[in-house]
Amino acid sequence: MIRYQITDGAATVDEDRWLARLRRDVDFIQIRERDLNARQLARLVRKVLACVPGPRILVNDRADVAIACGAAGVHLRAGSVPPRLIRTLAPLIVTVACHSAADVARAEGANFAILAPVFTPLSKPGQTEPHGLEGLRRAARDAALPVIALGGITERNAAQCVEAGAVGVAGITLFSR
Prior knowledge:
8 helices, 8 strands, alpha/beta, TIM Barrel, eight-stranded parallel beta barrel
C-alpha cells in the first residue's frame, strides 16, 4: 500500500517542528506550502531533500520548483496544466487532485490520481460531500491510472480503501500523528 503524506501548510510557523513531522516511512511527501513564494519554496524543498531520506518528494503545483530542486515530482491541483504537458518538461512523477470520477478520467498522463474526499476530511470537515467507499470503488475500477484515497483516512479505514481498489492512502492528519 502506498503511503502519501501531505504537509500541513505550517512550515512558516515553526520550520524545525514542521520538519520533525515529516515521515521517513512513507513513499511520498507532497510539500503543500501555499504561502511560500518560489524562492522560499525552493529553499524548503532543498532542505527536505537533504534532511528526509527515503520518501520521494513532490512539490505542490510548482513543476518549475520541482525541476530546479531535483524533486521526484509534482502534484497538480484540479484545473492545473495537463499532466502530459509536465511530462514534456522533465521525467517527473505526476499526481493529480481529483474530486470526481470525471476528474480521474481527465488525469490521463499522470502517475496517480488523488481522489478526495473519500470520507469527511479530518482537517476540513463539512466542505465537500464525501465519495464513500462505493464512489472510490467505481473511480478506481474505471480509472486508467492508479487511484490514491484522500480525505478522512484513518488507520482504521485505510485497509478498506485498498480493498475498494485504491493503491494507497494519502493524508495530512493521518501521517502527522
